[in-house]
Amino acid sequence: xxxxxxxxxxxxxxxxxxxxxxxxxxxxxxxxxxxxxxxxxxxxxxxxxxxxxxxxxxxxxxxxxxxxxxxxxxxxxxxxxxxxxxxxxxxxxxxxxxxxxxxxxxxxxxxxxxxxxxxxxxxxxxxxxxxxxxxxxxxxxxxxxxxxxxxxxxxxxxxxxxxxxxxxxxxxxxxxxxxxxxxxxxxxxxxxxxxxxxxxxxxxxxxxxxxxxxxxxxxxxxxxxxxxxxxxxxxxxxxxxxxxxxxxxxxxxxxxxxxxxxxx
Amino acid sequence: xxxxxxxxxxxxxxxxxxxxxxxxxxxxxxxxxxxxxxxxxxxxxxxxxxxxxxxxxxxxxxxxxxxxxxxxxxxxxxxxxxxxxxxxxxxxxxxxxxxxxxxxxxxxxxxxxxxxxxxxxxxxxxxxxxxxxxxxxxxxxxxxxxxxxxxxxxxxxxxxxxxxxxxxxxxxxxxxxxxxxxxxxxxxxxxxxxxxxxxxxxxxxxxxxxxxxxxxxxxxxxxxxxxxxxxxxxxxxxxxxxxxxxxxxxxxxxxxxxxxxxxxxxxxxxxxxxxxxxxxxxxxxxxxxxxxxxxxxxxxxxxxxxxxxxxxxxxxxxxxxxxxxxxxxxxxxxxxxxxxxxxxxxxxxxxxxxxxxxxxxxxxxxxxxxxxxxxxxxxxxxxxxxxxxxxxxxxxxxxxxxxxxxxxxxxxxxxxxxxxxxxxxxxxxxxxxxxxxxxxxxxxxxxxxxxxxxxxxxxxxxxxxxxxxxxxxxxxxxxxxxxxxxxxxxxxxxxxxxxxxxxxxxxxxxxxxxxxxx
Lengths: 264, 518
Hints:
The structure holds two protein chains of two kinds. Chain A is an alpha/beta fold. Helix content of chain A is 39%, strand content 21%. Chain A is built from nine helices and ten strands. Chain A has a six-stranded mixed sheet, with helices on both faces. In chain A, strands 2-1-4-5 form a four-stranded antiparallel sheet, with helices on one face. In chain A, a hairpin with a 2-residue loop joins β9 and β10. In chain B, β1, α10 and β2 form a beta-alpha-beta unit. Helix content of chain B is 63%, strand content 11%. The two termini of chain B are 39 Å apart. By secondary structure, chain B is an alpha/beta fold.
């Protein structure tokens, strides 16, 4: 089966060719998968993500969705078919929660009644009360705002959702809760998701496949299991060693005899 | 109530309406030009720098100078359109005022709109792109609403500036609240000056409050406030503009230069036109050269000028023929050259003459300009604002080799005061001025006839030449005003105590004109 999304030797420079932010990135994403792009800051993962909905236009190479080059049509129309969740949440501060969620269906010209029904459906889906629709985003907590951002991204029933460090700004407990909710939605709605994260542990826990990036290049693209196995080398091995060490440490702590607690 | 207050109140509906219309159009145009320019400027860095630099530069030009600059510009443009499409542009009044004020209103609108648009969080702009908005949708749905509070603050500043600066448009012949201030300053009618300032300030305050309400509404996304502010502006504007909708038919525009005699004569002319059933509007405080050009291009319909002034300045003649010959030649030349009708001489002269205090002249033994020339290097000379640049001064200087220690220009009222207080020794006086007799001044003889005669003549614009109503209203004034009556009327307005308004003085003249002296 052909891949849903194909990146074919895509490159981009922001300084007129002196340095490459992304260098000949090649990536095939199959329908229904959740892909994580990991790497240090400045490794080119966000730029790679933005090629897919043309927030960044590549200097060379080709991006295809369902075999069609993304630059064949209008950029705005392309983006209405692809959900996008932001690092900084990115809700429109002058619109209510409901208006934020409704924005892409509005742009697509859905009937008013259908949009209203869809907003209610989505609030249920992301586990927010329906009366939140009339609230301002600023009245919501960070986790609630991120749930709204997810609802907005999937409002127009896209097949593809792009996420740029979507849970980075949340506290650990909220992060875990929003993350699990999204993982559930991804499966239930049959989405194809590409997620940028610098949290390798998150990538390992969520992703079907992980692309490891460094200095604009994709160093490895494989399942978490394969990357964690001892075959990996160099930067990839260093990056993947982190969650492994954490897991081993937690394992050791849970297996050890409780000593201090007896007195507590 | 004080008579001057009653006068001021009577003029208010028209002055306020004109002022509001002018400000409204200028602010509206400022917004209409400023906002799209700001949007374009945020997209192109080069345009942003150029637009802001140009707008800031305009802001450094004094308001009065900006208005004055548009006059020659429009004259040139008018000549161009006249020769290409056969339609001239009015160079005086509403058009130049609106153009200058629009430029004034532009900077705050432009600067704030650029700042407002640049201040929108880049993450929100990227979000707008990412949800699939086109650039136009992004501007309307995201950038504009988020920049709106800052933009509104700019519009508010522009409105206050424009309403204040609009008072200056009086000087290019556009009626405004400035008419109170300019004519009040000239006739030392401080009630008028105060009245003009207070009304202009109140208007600016009211508009500022209403726009402030809209600004608060935009910031807090409160529709009720926005609607209340808009309703206030629409209703207030509507009430202020009503007099314009009611009047405006058959309006005759009466011009006046910037001194008391001209104000009085403009009142006299207006009153006679009104008595014949016309509506008359005054264009007061025009510069000497502007007044004639305005008449020649029919921007005003009638005013009084002086034969010698037209002879030297407009006809550019340097000879000084005998009085009647000059009038005949002037009448013929005006009709041939400009289709301007010289209706006739009013009966008095208002010549430029050099004047000194009688006792000072006696003390120095000066009785003619010839005597003066010898002592001039030790004396200081006070003039009105235009005398030193007029050909009469060149002629005098040439004929008598005059060379003063110091030359100073004043508003006419302050020029007489400077002579009284001894700040200057000699002034350029007008022979019809009531203050000559009242202040005990001596007019110095001009044995070489360097200065021509200055009969006051009624001039009619090409548009109104041989207009029956004008003939009926104004022909009785020909030869009907004696020099003594004019001096007396001028003094009623110019004296320091017990002053009357130009309108009162005009009534005094009208009474004497109805019983012709000749």
